[in-house]
Request: fold
Amino acid sequence: MRLFCAVELPQAVRQQLERGIGELRRRLPSARWVRAEGIHVTLKFLGEQPEALVGALEDAARASLAACGPVEVRLGGGGFFPNPRRARVAWVGGQAVGLDRWAAALEDAAAACGVAREERPFSLHLTLARLDRPWPEPDAQRFLAEVGGWRFEPFVAQEVVLFESQLGPGGSRYTALRRWPVGGAHVA
Reply:
């Protein structure tokens, strides 16, 4: 099973991303644009794992996340990984004080279950597109200007979702396997 832990986005944010991606797709060079319904904030990528990890991670994740609290997420701005000149991924960024604690808690829980720790520090981002080759400088600047003008309503994240990712010809499909409330949050 290909697994990851993430924060789901509110429907209003997804709808805004869908409109924005549609505009970017028309104005920018070829890229593999993600479907808005699948966009999320990845906290921990677990990779290919045996099905037994789902059960083992359940208690470890709940225990680790109990010390964390809900987090206000403010999305905005954009960028490229690894950088604009060698861009392979185009993204929307954001700020969420405390979300790095969620990521660290999940790293600890996964490590306790035998999953390797991530070497890179947590970076809040929403992947919008994967580029087969970097865009020319004017197109990269156009992307940054367009995304920089997007305004999202802040939202409060209160749970982590364990997803299974199934790769297919139309892109990845995500299935929620578990939902873990954070701290004392009660999610409806």
About this structure: The first strand starts at residue 2 and ends at 8.
